[in-house]
Design a protein that fits this description.
2 copies of one chain form a homodimer.
Chain A (H helix, E strand, L loop, with lengths): L1 E5 L8 H12 L3 E6 L1 H10 L6 E5 L10 H7 L4 H10 L5 E4 L3 H12 L9 E8 L2 E6 L9 H18 L6 E5 L10 H11 L5 E6 L11 E3 L2 H27 L2 H9 L1 H11 L1 H4 L2 E4 L5 E3 L6 H16 L2 H15 L1
């Protein structure tokens, strides 16, 4: 399998992206670096070359604040677009970008096309919990969802969790405002009934947002609006708590000393919760998986994103998702 | 103003509730303790009496896991119900409970009745941020909301923020999945238009869930489903991070020593983020405000809840909310 990397996307592009890609290539990942040839080559020349890494020129760059509609129309030779085109032509099996996530989503949906049986794409991410990782989708690709879309997300999440979490029967929950069946919106209550009869999914009913971290289920399904609020609430809380702890630690000498001593432990905490380590969010429901990493990712995070994308590409997610959905359709 | 306290609700009831009420009464809050006479009196006898504290007998108790519908039908002489009845009869100006929050909500809505002009009640809470507190509503009283309901919530939140945060013109934001006007659900986009034309509200557009903690606005408005997911995501993240930090600190001697040294700083962090200090969630849109505190609250948290309820009761929220809504209605 081969992975296309948008070398020009991200806060530290192209340098950190190219270096991370080089690290992954040295460990056997087949990488196509897409971006400005001169810029990439000047970074590559400083490092030793690798047979697993090839370069595809793309003269345009999409900025972090560009609108998806504008980028789609005017940036047809941008690194992200050329990477997606390679996927659409079957030349690569996954795309990795740390760039503008709205543009990545819109371009992926437009260029790659939907997998058979999938009406709406979903953005999925693995979050840390007290006992391993939990998969949450949709985190913002499909803002409004009908019950049938949530049912499809549950199938996609099941297939991804099987491939990545090595769970034979991942437990799936619907994100709601309580666990009793009478809770939730009418759309959620209808999705509950669909999931309850879905033979492809191990459905565990509703989960509440705080239960996500206690790992009561392996896969959490929600619409893209709710998922976006959930994810940003989690990120906001992490960042707020970090700031508060730092501020309070500075207020007395004991706290300051404690901060120094606790550094190794805090770095482990950071690593547990850092999204860059998790590998970003994955666009599912399109013919080629697209990994959208955090813009702030550096060399090591880029490398781990590439290993993750490699693993996902090997799992032939799109085919497996469509096979399950066809199986469901036949059962009706 | 006089406050009714459900003495039998909460993990540490009645003892900690009675003691906290006594502390508040000694500082001038006029308290009616509602619950089992004998149980309350045996606690009161151990302390010195206070002229500001009277006792109202209620023979029944509602358990933490009882269903609201059942409690409403079968527990008409429970402490929470009798406290609400006192409010409905105009004998108290606010109700405080640490008991079953679903029952408190349902009983409040049923017994107290809606304020003129209010279609749906909302549960509001003050959350800590890096720069003071932010008010978020609805946190779960009204799961599905039409745009007009969100507009009313914005008015209720404005009035509460004026009374409690001492802001003359509190900035109000709608919780959404992005800040651009084209983001959000159709209901949110319609609510945006209503709020933009609402002369009673200083509307700042959409806010994202992570921006809540950076205090870009003073009041965050959402429907009860989204608010519940938001609040529980925040609570789950707090608790997950706390567990992770403790686990990592135990893994090496430096971390362990650091933990001891950092204790004062960590306790200040805890105090900043603890909801018991904030005073719980307030049911708005009914004729008498109801404060629903955390079940785990102890003496000091109960006392601070009572001071907060006293302050809210003095502000005549219900009248002010109805006056603003009538003003809005006339403007049409």
């Amino acid at each position: 399998v081969r992975i296309a990397v948008d070398a020009m996307g991200g806060d530290h592009a192209p340098e950190q992206v190219v270096l991370g890609a080089l690290d992954a290539a040295r460990k056997g990942v087949d990488v196509q670096l897409v971006g400005d040839r001169d810029a990439i080559q000047s970074i590559l020349e400083e490092s030793s070359e690798s047979g697993n890494l090839t370069l595809v020129h793309a003269p345009q760059v999409v900025g972090m604040s560009e609108a998806p509609t504008v980028a789609l129309r005017r940036k047809k030779r941008s690194s992200i677009r050329v990477a997606m085109d390679l996927a659409a032509e079957g030349k690569v099996d996954a795309v990795v970008t740390l760039g503008n996530s709205g543009v990545a989503l819109a371009t992926g949906v437009r260029v790659l096309g939907a997998s058979p049986g999938v009406d709406r794409p979903a953005l999925a991410s693995f979050l840390p919990t007290t006992q391993g990782r939990v998969l949450v989708l949709d985190l913002g690709a499909s803002v409004e969802c009908r019950p049938a879309h949530l049912n499809t997300f549950a199938v996609m999440g099941t297939v991804l969790a099987q491939a990545v979490l090595d769970k034979r029967k991942p437990r799936v929950g619907l994100l709601s405002n309580g666990t009793e069946p009478e809770k939730g919106t009418p759309a959620l209550r209808k999705a509950w009934r669909l999931l309850d009869e879905n033979p492809v999914v191990s459905f565990e009913g509703y989960v509440e947002a705080n239960e996500v971290f206690s790992h009561r289920v392996d896969v959490v399904v929600c619409d893209g609006f709710v998922g976006n609020v959930f994810l940003k609430a989690v990120e906001g809380t992490f960042s707020f708590l970090g700031q508060t702890v730092r501020k309070e630690a500075r207020r007395d000498p004991l706290g300051w000393t404690a901060g120094l001593l606790a550094k190794p432990a805090l770095e482990r905490v950071q690593k547990t919760v850092e999204y860059s380590e998790v590998g970003g969010a994955l666009l599912l429901g399109v013919e080629t998986p697209v990994l959208v990493g955090h813009g702030r990712s550096k060399r090591r995070a880029v490398e781990s994103a590439l290993h993750f994308a490699h693993r996902v590409a090997e799992a032939s997610l799109a085919e497996r998702i469509s096979a399950r959905l066809a199986h469901l359709e036949q059962g009706k």
